[in-house]
Amino acid sequence: MAIKVIFVGPMGAGKTTAIAAISDIPPVATEARNHDKTMHVKATTTVAMDYGELSLDDGNKLSLYGIPGQRQFSFIWPIVSKGALGGILLLDCSMSDWAEQFKFYIDSFRSLANSGAMVVGLNRVEEDDKETVSGVIQDCCENLELALPYFFMDPRDPQDVNLLLEALVINAELDHILQGE
Ligand SMILES: Nc1nc2c(ncn2[C@@H]2O[C@H](COP(=O)(O)OP(=O)(O)OP(=O)(O)O)[C@@H](O)[C@H]2O)c(=O)[nH]1
Ligand SMILES: [Mg+2]
To answer: Which of 14, 49, 83, 170 has its CA 20 to 30 A from that of 32?
Structure first.
């Protein structure tokens, strides 16, 4: 059986990159030229969704979907998220508004966060800033009455992305579903 996992987060957080880093199949991407360089300087942006697949050692499969980060495409988010059992929230912490984005995305995908089915990947954090960033995340989680696992990571690194998925599978108890319990 395939378990659906969605990658969410703002523009440039690395959703498309992370899915491409771990997908067993050539990822399906819907990239178009980025006309909004004020939001992010990268050349392209997702306009519909990303899709990839990852087979687990036990024969089960994760289907990986990425949302488009631009808010003008937020009408697509519920369509892409439908039936998702887990979420990976990615954030580019070099953006000045990353903490606001964190709260916004938790709010937008609150049902996954509430059920313990969300893991946070923090990207582009300098070594010296890790303590501060951890403090901000912990304060936000406390205010939201949530306990979310978070990791410093690079979406280009398959090992980092796999670690997020492993944490998600365990934390959201998706392993029980995969084992048919
Ligand atoms: N130099 C550097 N580049 C990074 C790092 N993390 C991510 N990137 C790059 O940042 C960009 C992230 O872009 P995408 O993967 O398209 O981001 P996205 O979340 O899919 O964005 P939208 O689809 O526009 O919402 C890619 O070009 C990555 O290679 C990092 O730690 N260092
Ligand atoms: Mg993308």
So the answer is: 83
